[in-house]
Amino acid sequence: MNWLQELPWQVFWFGWGMLALLAGGSLYAVWWAKRNAKAIGSQTPVDVSDLRAGYRLAWGSTIGPDLTAPLTGRPCVWWKVQVWESAQEVGTGSGSASTRWVWREAVTEESDRPLLFEGGGAIAAIWTWGATAIVPSGWSDWRGQSLPPEDRDPKLRKGGAPGQGLRRDSQGTFGPRFRYVEQIIEKGAPIFALGEVTRVDPSLYGEEMDDGEPGDDGDGDGDGWQPEPNRLGLIPTPDRAIAADMARAAWSIGAAKGQPFLISTEHPDAVSAEQELGAKGGMIMGGIFAVLALALAWMRLAG
After folding, report:
1. How far is CA 59 from CA 50, 125, 138, 177, 252, in A?
2. Residue 1 has pLDDT above 70, yes or no
3. Of 20, 65, 79, 253, which has the maximum CB count within 10 A?
4. With contact defined as beta carbons under 8 Å apart, do 278 and 57 qualify?
């Protein structure tokens, strides 16, 4: 291929590097999915009432806290919202300035209270931050022109989780300004949590919790210092509310060092099957990109 030999080295290595990056990313996704599937398969679901300390797969039904999703107002016990804003980006091409429309992350927020679930009369709390993956009970993905959105009742989808990639839209003057993604876990939903289980120490969550903010005298009258609301009008939950949540729980579940931390409203067998399917797809794509990268390098260097 003469054209391949005639390409400037900078152009060739850039294209080769993109293929190598795609191959590496696909193979990393395979490792990630296999790791999750193996972790799930090595554990047997344990009812909350039968929990003990260690790396466990606990299951039960969600009971709280009673929350409201910020974009739709839907009742839930956990939520996460992500918002991207369409914006113009100035670049240079062929020696002249050019502009293009891109999606830029505007907001990423997650409920900051522990998710409570019950089984066999016992209650456990899940600290969702740092979870490897969360499979919600419902999610919505829609577009609009304002933040918060005018449409507060988009289609609620069940099963799986929203794609992380941004699908192509007709961006520009007449296109949507925002893309919204909201995930929720509903009250009464089945829940499985794979993570590090520890016994809750009641002494850490006494009634006299101090929110630790300057100027707050702790009398709850609202005259002390208050944090500024974010772009969605949200402010952090006071420590007292979190303490009240934790006071109900006998066990706490969080991230385990060096192990997947998974939370799902789908049965572990279904999640494991999805991870295995994703690993197979990633293996195929990674293999294709790797072969292409090796072939191009051989043809360029051998010629």
Report:
1. 10, 11, 18, 40, 13
2. no
3. 253
4. no
